[in-house]
Amino acid sequence: MADKHTNLIVSAAPHVNAPQDTASIMRDVCIALIPAVSVAVYVFGLQALILTLVCCAACVFMEWATRRIMGRPDTTSDWSAMVTGLILALNLPVSMPYWMAVVGCFVAIVVAKQFFGGLGQNFANPAIVGRIALFIGFATQMSTWAVTPRMSSAIVNVAGADAISGPTPLGLLAKGSAVPTNLEMFLGNINGSMGEISAAALIIGGVYLVIRKVISPVIPLSFIGSVAVMSLVFGLDPIFQVCAGGVMLGAIFMATDYVTSPITNAGKVIFGIGCGVLTMLIRMYGSYPEGVSFAILFMNILVPHIDSLTKHVAFGKEKGGKK
Amino acid sequence: MEKKSKLSIFTNGLIKENPILVLVLGTCPTLALSTAAMNGIYMGLALTFVLTCSNIFISALKRIIPDSVRIPCFITVIATFVTIVQLVIKAYMPELDGILGVYIPLIVVNCIILGRAEMFASKNTIVDSAIDGLGMGIGYMIALTFMGCVRELIGAGTVFGMAVTVNFLTPFSIATLPPGGFFVFGCIIALMNKLTKGKVREKQENKCMGCPGSSFCSKSQEGGCDQ
Amino acid sequence: MKAALFLVFTAIITNNYVLVQFLGICPFLGVSKKLNSAMGMSVAVTIVMVIATAVTWPIQTYLLDPNDIGYMQTLVFILVIAALVQLIEIVLKKFIPSLHKALGVYLPLITTNCAVLGVCVLNITNEFTYGQALLNSFGAGIGFMLAMFLFAGVRSRIETNDYPEAFKGVAGTLVAASIVSLSFLGFSGLVSGLFGM
Q: What's the predicted TM-score (pTM) here?
């Protein structure tokens, strides 16, 4: 292949022809996120819903506005900006000031996506870039975790009866305090980013996406699996580690972004394992308590190399795809 | 080369061939030091001094320096002036030494200076070279200070250390970190593209014109490196 | 051993010379379009960094400092590096022509690569021992390579993008670099945590 467009790799047959388009896929992702949003509203109250709506509206508006300023066709109808807004919102603590959330939406939609030409041309997941930029830029606000009466007693007790914020399960673990039970971790009676708390709700959404053939389960399984294996190796509770922080949300909804994940199954496995291993390394040794988004962003950057390493070779062509 | 007016030589560095905004030279100190507006002034002054002096000196010596060893000679001249700046800063402004740090000695390898020596001073009169050095240096200072203002304003809510938005808006501190440096620089160049309707980009695409490597880079004869 | 690895990995990741310390940005932006040339440049830079440190550190410690002419550092270092680069080129051409063919284009450009002079100066500023200085330079070179490797991948992915007019060219490349350097912030504390230092 001596063509210039090395990023347009046609894999070996068979080629899939499905009645899906971007809008239907993105709509399915939105539907799959309904359980997670519902849990967030149940645990954190109405403010969670308002913040989610603010992010979605900001993302859609910025998508519309940048496309207009650039003089390009409007793409808000493909629902992708909506999904970015939804996922970004679920990555924020409920107490996040709205204007800061809007800054995050700007970074996600305008910087990470439209500056590179729009959907399909971004090399990093927009929501991840937005989240990390907020996390680094507004560190205090991004790590203030609200406590509500609906949360595990392990969190409420440590925070104190009248406290409005308290440590997350990963924070408790780092301090060596008692952590919520695994059932609480799974159901979501904990604090953290709005959409991260309930593993159960995220898994329901993930199963829906797999059934609808929107995502392949390869990345989530290898991501979550490698987090579990790493926990076992280091003598940690795998169920706690998998349910804590952003693993579920990241593995199911952010690492599976078509644009920024590898094409082949082998590539997806490498990508998932890389995410899982990096997440655990950052959790255990890094200065940040949570490493999911950094891990996914780093693996996003590696995707071109993973793709060229694992690309299918059509029958009869030389292995390695050298020109 | 046609005769240029003194004024056009001076403004050349300010606008048309601004070393940062148009030629994208000396990017390392630009990114590293633009965290605060004041750094731009300090670094700009240091660079302007070295650039003007080395331009004068190299222009004066242009008939004496043998062509085959001109690059080491240029570097020696530049390094001498950098050492002078280093000593002055260490003696009179030790706190500045801490801020600018390694970027002071690194002025030696700043592509702008070697580039001007090669492209301008070694071909022009002493006066013209001095004006060129001043123009380029001040152009550098303005661009760096501007970038510093933007990053300081967003990242710390201050400009030149004075509170602007910090009292009512939480600063978005990422602007003063490395990603913010790349990003703000990218946006400023995009703005230049917009203002000049892409003329800036055409210049940047022919990067050999400002690259100090152009004199010994084999690819410069082939119309620029494809890199 | 642990201390040595700590030093190397700090230079590669936490203090990455390109993405964190902003040294060697010109080749990072200029020679990262194709993976092959990015790697060639990185190998050449790593070699020159280590050799330059091997030479400049003793010069500073045994020649400049005892004679109280430490201020000659900048002048001496840059001339030594320039001479070294020439020497390496001649030696490669003579003895390993294949390697010279692969790296020859990049060698002359390395003299003015601020990462090389930067690492030599920083080794002295940080008061490293000879061994530490060599390890740090090696780590700096590998870190340069890592940054180039990552960025070359990203650029191969985005070079055919349909950028907005204003972000075509250097501007878009810088924004991409910003996202790559964002990912490196996640590694903060990782190396010291890993090695318990």
A: 0.90
